[in-house]
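Fold it.
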Amino acid sequence: MASFTAKDVAALREKTGCGMMDCKKALTQSNGDMEAAIDFLREKGLAAATKKAGRIAAEGMAYAFVADCGNVAVAIEVNAETDFVAKNAEFKAFVETCAQTVAKQNPADVEALLACKAEGSEQTVDALLKEKILTIGENIKVRRFERFEGAVTAYIHAAGRIGVIVKFDTTPEIAATEGFKEYAKNVAMQVAAANPSYVNEAAVPAEVVEHEKKILTEQVINDGKPAAIAEKIVMGRIGKFFKEICLTDQAYVKDPDISVQKYTENVAKELGGSIAISAFARFEKGEGLEKRSDNFADEVASMIK
């Protein structure tokens, strides 16, 4: 029996851009030899995009939409090497296909999505991805996605720089009103602009709060404040901390005199029911990824040589 691990399969996939099952088969055929497995995939024509798969992909686009059914929202980030590709119609169509596939088939993660049959196609998403890498000529990676069901909204900022989806707890009757739809869009725009980390104070992990308290306490003591009043000062600053990281505590961008929570309560009262923000996802393209730092003149020169 071939000797290799799940990590070997993952490593081969990273090197070649091929599907997990193809990588497992290649390692089985090559008795766990990584280089032989790469050769096997290349010989089968499965790793034609091997070199591209190792290149940095930190551009691309974030996309968000609400499916035709009206109660499923998807946010997805698909990366490419350059911002030019984000404007490519073929690339945009691929991103939208991925989002539609997530909406319809509800895969558990990116690996499961790649194994899905792409909506509107006879190919898997993984096969379609490899095809786009070859035809577009850049490394392309499906990085992440989120999917919500229920009363939802979606917002795209700056032609795909940021994609946001938000889920609400309310009744179908209220969710169907124009007033709610306008409110929901405003909340999604708030998420895009203010970049909160959590929905509300209850969602902030205890360890995050304790860590912040420790830092603030040290700051207060270093400022020379007496220990007797340090705790009160820290609690006041923790309130400011929540206003920065919690969506419902933030000042509403269109009316800074009220919080997002107060804005929510006002709209709920106008519509004759209750509304609560239950979840959100905010994807910014290339967030946290290493960026390319190519010198364009050097690149042209190397092409001429």
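Strands lie at 61-66, 72-79, 141-149, 151-157, 162-169, 251-252, 255-259, 276-284.
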